[in-house]
Amino acid sequence: MPRAGLTTDRVVAAAADLADATGFDNVTVSALARHFGVKDASLYTHVRNLRDLRVRVALLAGGELIDEIAAAVAGRAGKEALAAFAGAYRSYALRHPGRYAATQIRMDQSLVADSPALRRTAEITHGMLRAYGLTEPDLTDAVRLLRSTFHGYCSLEATGGFGAPRDVRASWDKVVEALHVTLTHWPREGTRG
Length: 193
Hints:
InterPro entries: Homeodomain-like_sf, HTH-type_TetR-like_transc_reg, HTH_TetR, MT1864/Rv1816-like_C, Tet_transcr_reg_TetR-rel_C_sf
GO molecular function: DNA-binding transcription factor activity; transcription cis-regulatory region binding
Strand content: under 5%
Low-confidence stretches: none
Organism: Streptomyces rochei
DNA-binding region: 28-47
Pfam families: TetR_C_33, TetR_N
Helix content: 55-70%
Radius of gyration: 19 Å
Order of helices and strands: HHHHHHHHHH
């Protein structure tokens, strides 16, 4: 019988908090059990195993992240939407380092297809990029450019990887401006020389 007060949602939320506090790689069933003052076995009525727990944290974090991005880009298009999207992404990654790390794990494609949050992420991202006139396969290429740029920048910033005296926010703004220029002048599939 599940321990009174423990639910799957509560367990996953605590795991996400633990990830932010100690790092996603340090989230274990044992650490979570200690947090709740229960034995490891008590948690297995809520999650199948460590992988299941981590995937659930990733899905929770992905939903939180896209909610923030959606609110930021609402009613905006083009450069304004890109800047809002980028700002919300960066803010979430820096405020929630463990949750953000969870969003980077590789997941089974069937889980991705079944996740409303991850489908919404694709819809919002593609919607923003369509304002630049992009269609497939350029849309996928542009998504990969944005994700790798945002992820790389946020990861370096979070670990203190930028040592130059220039303000990190000023550099971020330049990166977003450069991405806008790139998206505006995207080398469309079929028009490359």
